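#structure-requests
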Amino acid sequence: MKGHVEVFEALRREILAGKYDAERRLPSETVLARRFGVSRPTISRVTLDLKREGLIATRKGAPSTITRYALNATGALGFVVPGVGYAEIFNPLKARLEKLAEHAGWDLVSGEIKGSDPEVRAREVRRLAYQFSKEHVAGVFFQPLEFLKDAPSASEEAVRYFDDAGIAAVLLDYDIAPPPKRSRYDVVGIDNMAAGLAVGRHLLGTGAKRICFLHRPNAAPTVTNRMRGVASAVIEGGGDWSLGRNVLFAEPGNRRAVSKFLANGLPDAFVAGNDIAAAALRETLAKIGKGAENIRLVGFDDVEVAARLNITSVRQPLDAIADTALQTLASRIKTPALPPRTILLDAELIVR
């Protein structure tokens, strides 16, 4: 004998899969109770929950009907995240989203985005966006592109496919529009300014006098916000901050650029945009030597490399991000006219 939750999930999947599209009506409660081997009150409870989800409409004395919202949904959600190919954090986030989506009755579908070249990734993203628009998934989780000179325009090209198909999209990590502009999409991520501020305060508390930031060229706005948070902590502590003295705009493996920056004096600490960049910078500093290998490093994301190399890092709350992103996308699918929302979650500093 099935329980209320099992019956609800079974009917939800069938509705989203289009089983009842032809007549747009659910079988009667008597028929459903007999089919699932449950009582009429159990089916009534299931019917109420389906109505709350916006999947059916009920009217006294008439069969329950499938809503337009349900007819437009496929039961599948797309995952278009180029960061999967170069940032460790997105694979565990995807795994959490898959689990939550399945529990809620959705299938999470994704495609492989290959290549280390940002231009190649941009083409793969557009290909996936076109594919999902033709498959008419109900909604999409999308991480905007970065490491391109005109990343906002490249990201807009991709989401235009979703807009044209009437598919809801939630942006992960950061907005498409460069600050201080705001796009028309929901954004779910962490409060990067606050995280950077916590990093800066921690380093000052350990006695660091000169704190510098590694900012990769054309990195995402999240990295800029992390840098601004660190700068705010330094200024708050009575120190000076300038782009020329405190910020190195270069790839972490660019030994020449790093050496040139260090010629003006070794900092006490270097903060990088993420753990992988911090680890790469450590290798470069070790090659330079002359005391550079002793500079303290801090990263973001708290992925495996941070623990292995004993790098202090900011841990992203992946469970909370996945849960919030799914809820945000579900509400956007159900109510497309909602105003755009930015939801920033707290992150934890892991000191090593």
